[in-house]
Amino acid sequence: MKINEHKTINYYAKYSILCLTLLLNACSLVYKNTGDIMLGYAEDQGIPYMLATEDVALGCAMSEAFTPFLLSFSQVTAPPNHLAILFYLMAGNCSEFKAWEEELRYLRAIRSKNTTEAQDARIAQQRFLHQAALRQLTGFHYLTLAIAEPGGQCPDFASDDDELFWLIGLVDGIQAIMNDIAAGGNADVPMDIAAKVGRGAVCLDNEKWWGVPVAIHAAIQATMPGSQQGGKEPLHALDQAIQIGLLQGMRIPQVLAAQVNLGLGNTEHVKKIIRKFAQEKNQFPGSQTYMILNKISILQIQAISDRLWTEATGKRTPIGKLGAFWDDDHKAVEIIDIEEML
User: For the chain, which residues make up each domain, given as ranges?
Assistant: First the structure.
């Protein structure tokens, strides 16, 4: 090969490499700009819209479909850690909804003495709870990346949004533990998260955040192994948190109170909470800003009612009977239509 030909080939090779490098850099810049735009839109418009929506099923679809898509931009721009806290909580709730249906199938099978069906339903329930626990544990981990790890010194919150994501991350943590326990511990959620969540809850103003910080702390004291505090004091704190939440149109403390009392076997108190939940619908209208959180709370209370009804009668809460129970006498009991609430 002649020297001039060799120089020409070498020139074209270098030129090709240079063009390829410029092209890749241009693509990276496009991806970064696209990621910045998408994440900015999600934070400024998508999240507020999702929080205010009334359709929980659509919220589930959005969280399950968009979570991997949005998080994929973390490879080319700042990671959307704040968004992940909420999206993984929602995705975990979606798995919980499926687990509830399997629990009802299990209870019906037990009632009809169908052992095989009962075993299959229990397996399916635990699989969905395992998935829920993993998703919510992931949301809790994103809280440590976005703001700080709960349990130590309280962070300096930059805004109300930071406080909201802190609260949601704490709920991620406590729900992950509860679902993992219900699933048999297969998700290996560290139990020390309970203590971290409890200490993290005191970093928030209880009055400002709907009584949820005190409700979380009381739920941990009442139910978590090794908390060393049970009895009436945490349950009384839960009742107080319910009133604070209702005055601001938020029902999350009612759900935590019902879950805690159900786990402790206080069935009559659970019924009382559900009755009050139904009766206070019109007296304490729900927050429009955080509509989806209230809609999820309604579904969670309905699920607890369905469980009690199915254990006793073999069928879930009848339409229009949320707030009433199979063993009520014929005295006046205010009831509401579940479909109307949803």
Answer: 1-189, 237-342
